[in-house]
Specification:
Layout: E1 2-3, H1 14-22, H2 34-54, E2 61-64, H3 67-84, E3 90-94, H4 99-110, E4 115-118, H5 128-133, E5 138-144, H6 156-166, E6 170-173, H7 185-188, E7 192-196, E8 207-211, H8 237-252, H9 254-272, E9 278-280, E10 290-296, H10 305-314, E11 317-318, H11 334-338, E12 344-350, H12 357-377
Parallel strand pairs: 1-11, 3-4, 3-5, 5-6, 6-7
Antiparallel strand pairs: 2-8, 7-8, 9-10, 10-12
Helix pairs in contact: 1-8, 2-8, 3-4, 10-12
């Protein structure tokens, strides 16, 4: 099977697998005996390395179980903290965010939060002017660094400038962007930034929320008070060290891999641009490893993304018609709808370290027939 779904999860790096296989058992890093303190040393070394890779201070690194927990902690924790201060304000949220953000925000909305939804353009790029106009009285603004489906880069600098001027904390979802484009937390202007290990060749179930030292945040759960009281629980020293290793390697190879992968995705987009009824949605300024397109139906019949995904899977290509489905259930892409399209078959092709030119050649050879059969099935 040729993997074209690295944006969902990229295979664990060889170095990470080897480090995992060679790892010795670690004690609880909160224990005061020597075994515990050895584990503590591993943990804090990993925290320092994660901070260095992401341009943060070690005290700003709150280790989590992954991107979803990091996003939930950022959004719910900030909103709860604003209420505790007697200033509970609105949440400013673009409509094309990842479901980890949308579902958390909709839960908060049921709890009484005011949500100010911000539109996107035909490339899923957030309307920065509309977001800035929605900031007065807000408790938090959140935004992707880049669309996890289309790959379109978002106006982070413009939005950060507006949030700083308004005194509103900004959360950036960098889960899909870290290791693909440079991320230096101290330079973003954000108060909070989420990352996950499985996007950079690290372990599943390991991630971090970077929390600026002046950010006000309530914990989601409580216990031993670890990590500034923001994320209680026995910390996974081994998982943190594996995450640090993956981030270090991803950052070190970023420039070379970005150039290589952009050349491959450009080949895909150039090839499909000549196919009738196929539209490229991503903006020119996009993540280097994502090629996103939509297939239009024929004769007034909608094209089905699930059919296109299934046909390519049968041909030996693991692809996606959006972000990874929830609980194994495929959903119509809310991002494509937000771009103003319905009745089309989205196809997200995301490349990674293991993708070769031969893989792309094989995909391009199989794609026209899969598109034709998708339309026929409709």
């Amino acid at each position: 099977m040729r993997l074209f779904d690295h944006a969902a999860a990229t295979p664990m790096r060889v170095s990470v697998r080897e480090a995992l296989a060679a790892a010795e058992p670690l004690a609880n890093p909160a224990s005061t005996h020597r075994a515990g303190q050895r584990a503590r040393a591993v943990l804090e070394d990993a925290r320092e390395r994660i901070a260095a890779a992401l341009g943060a201070h070690p005290t700003e690194v709150v280790l989590t179980s992954g991107g979803t927990e990091s996003i939930n902690l950022a959004l719910k924790g900030t909103w709860w903290a604003s209420g505790r201060a007697g200033e509970r304000g609105a949440l400013v949220v673009p409509v094309a965010e990842h479901h980890a953000t949308l579902d958390a925000v909709e839960w908060l909305e049921r709890e009484g939060a005011e949500v100010r939804w911000i539109g996107v353009d035909a490339h899923a790029v957030t309307d920065a002017a509309a977001l800035a106009a929605a900031l007065p009285g807000a408790a938090l603004a959140t935004m992707l660094v880049a669309s996890n489906e289309l790959g379109s880069m978002q106006p982070v600098d413009e939005v950060a400038e507006a949030t700083l001027a308004a005194g509103v904390p900004l959360h950036l979802d960098a889960v899909g962007a870290v290791g693909r484009v440079p991320i230096r937390f101290a330079e973003t202007g954000a108060a909070l930034l989420s990352v996950g290990g499985h996007k950079v060749g690290g372990p599943h179930g390991a991630g971090a929320l970077l929390v600026r030292r002046d950010a006000r945040l309530e914990a989601l759960h409580h216990g031993g008070g670890q990590q500034r009281g923001l994320r209680s629980g026995t910390q996974d020293a081994l998982g943190a060290s594996l995450l640090a290793l993956a981030l270090e390697e991803a950052v070190a190879e970023l420039d070379a891999e970005a150039e290589r992968l952009r050349a491959l995705t450009d080949r895909i987009l150039d090839a499909v641009a000549g196919l009738a009824g196929v539209r490229i949605l991503a903006a020119d300024d996009r993540l280097p490893h994502i090629a996103h397109l939509v297939v239009e139906g024929e004769g007034g019949r909608p094209a089905q993304g699930e059919a296109l995904q299934f046909l390519l899977d049968e041909a030996g290509f693991a692809v996606s018609n959006g972000s990874a489905c929830s609980a194994g259930v495929a959903r119509e892409s809310h991002v494509v709808r937000a771009c103003g399209l319905e009745g089309v078959a989205p196809l997200r092709l995301s490349l990674g370290r293991t993708t070769t030119a031969e893989d792309v050649d094989a995909l391009l050879a199989a794609l026209p027939a899969a598109i034709a059969r998708t339309r026929a099935l409709a």
